[in-house]
Amino acid sequence: xxxxxxxxxxxxxxxxxxxxxxxxxxxxxxxxxxxxxxxxxxxxxxxxxxxxxxxxxxxxxxxxxxxxxxxxxxxxxxxxxxxxxxx
Length: 87
Known about the structure:
The protein has helices at residues 5-9, 17-28, 35-48, 54-69, 80-85. It has one domain (15-85). 61% of the residues lie in helices and 0% in strands. It is mostly helical. It contains five helices and no strands. The N and C termini lie far apart (41 Å).
């Protein structure tokens, strides 16, 4: 029985909440992070883990961004409308 060639080369790992928080922290460190970047990351996390909460991720990201830069992130991200806006 042959196996699919991709299944031998790639291993998909479901992230934990700590992984998502670290990624949000790293994104928040960049004051010029583009909202489309965040939307793409949210989309890929949703595909990876059906239990992923975009709302919690964005809330954590926004708090970290405010702490890092002293002002709020100026764009809307993580909503149905924003995902279409930056598509």
